[in-house]
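Teaching note: in complex prediction, the entire set of molecules is handled at once rather than each chain in isolation. The prompt given to students was simply: 'Predict the structure of this complex.' The entities are:
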Amino acid sequence: MSSGASPETARTTPSSAGVKRLLARTLRHLSRAALGALGVLLVTFTLIHLIPGDPVEILLGDAATEELVAKYRQILGLEGSLPQQFARYLASVAQGDLGTSIQTGQSVNSVVARTLPMTAWLIGVTVLMALLMALPLGVAAALLRGTWFDHAFRVATSVSLATPSFYFGLLLILLFAVRLGWAPVAGYQPGFPGNLQYLWLPALTMSGALVPILARVLQSSIAETMEQEFVETAIVRGLPAPVLVWRYLLRPSLAPTISLLGYILGQLLSATVVVEIVFNLPGMGTALVVEGVLLRDYPVVQGIILIFALIVVAVSFLSDTVSGWLDPRTRLS
Amino acid sequence: MEAESPILRVENLCIGVPRRRRGLLSIVDTADFQLRRHQALGVVGESGSGKTMLCRALMGTLRRHGAGVASGRILYRERDLAGAGEKVWRRIRGRRIGYVPQSSLAGLNPVLTVRTQLTEAIHAAREASATEAEDQALQLLELVRIPRSGQVLEMRSHELSGGMRQRVMIAAALAQEPEILIADEPTTALDVTIQREILNLINRLRERLKMALIFVSHDLAVIEEVCDSVMVMYAGASVEIGPLEAVVRHPRHPYTRALLASRVDLAVPGEDLETIPGDPASVGAWPSGCRFRPRCPLAEDDCREGVQPPLAPAGLQRTACLHHDRMGCDP
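The expected output is the structure of the full assembly:
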């Protein structure tokens, strides 16, 4: 194409323009991720040092002499002022080393490597389950607005939203694991597809908080779409019902739901902490609480929270991409 | 005129919105007209006169807007559609009645390409393979005079200009070769030169495809470009209907006369534009008797009584004015 492209000629090479746009967007997200990671590190570093309790004293017990404490402080890299400690930590993270656990001496990288896959599986299965439930529910609630279904939907989503996930999880365990025996009460075995039998109940627990939000956003978003002239036009064109629902109601309404999903995944990560503990799953949430926070194991806490932050950034990138694919209007900006 | 029976007959149609407490709120009341094959009927009136609701009644989409047919009949080939359910309407829509909406920006699905929206309409009308449908989609774009149709096929509405969008809307409405095309202010949102092109296009297509047309506009000048007859609506009622020329030359209703007198395109430069005194009667607050009475220079005591007068023959047209004989024959 010749230079000085008018909008018309630019249209004719959509692929190269598309690649450029994608690159620019990826760069933007990466720089945002780096900045976000730095902020997260700074905040967690500050917060965890504000919590009373000295890891070295926990490690050595009450009987330790002052010289011993000082020696261990040096071994563990906890000597010097906080800014000095932070600078040292930052330098090692920049090289891809998340540090060493104070309590166990394991590298934090290996803790992450051990626990990340399970948590990733849990999140993946949760998102899939939540969408599989929220999409039909939201569509039905929008189409049946004002009927008994709509009212039942409102009540059920409110109740579900108001139920804390640890309680909901225990109820589900009682029903499905203890009464019906459809799932193991707790525990985990890696390896697909065997791991699914351990994951579906925790995923269902987390969906309990996710589905109501997604389904309601979808419902109101579809209700808004229904008012659009193009729906009226499509109806008058005599299009079959499945085409109307999928292409004219769901497709134009899906983008906000997917964007929201990316957004509330941050909340979902904090839910994984609770759910992993309730279901005794050896994921990052359990590691964070049991190995990190309770033992004041600074490097473990910081490492895992950094990974959580990166997951949030990655997911928001992914949901942006998906909603851009679903709704080309959002691709313009 | 007598030889051919009309394909569409609307008889004393009343459209209402159910109210929480007391019965129905009327929004269209005594719409009354017929449409023969290949006829182009213009529907003119101020906003709020019930033009759009009338269109919706003819497409069976009133319920979506919380309204319904209260009484009267919509006879499509002698079949009453006034109380018809979705099942019946689904067979009528698209294949029998096509629709071009007012706002061309909102009329196209923003997330679908032109190709998808044209081919799905074609598939809804008849069995066709993917390539057949695509060929027909291209032909449709050429029919509505869209250049570079191959590229336009891949575009979405935000990539098209207003005039192009309206052409695509028309192409989609024609995909199923409807007998009747309903166009609700199809050129209102367009600038004047594009408006002219679209009107010419509608004219040509009507000739070529032998369609009947219902063309809704607030602008008589636009209606004169494409229609051969006209129905004037005021406050939900048909007040005058007849051949375009007769109505424009010899209006038999004071409201029609006032509309003609206030036309911008015929105004004398430098002189004040004629306006109709008073405000249009709003829905729910229609006066008793003739609804135009409070603004009418010919009003007398008997105009106050009863309900909106029905259309009665007068000259070549029919009028709802009780005193049309007192109107001078020239506007």
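Point out the following to students. DSSP finds 13 helices and no strands in chain A. Chain A has two domains: 16-94, 108-332.
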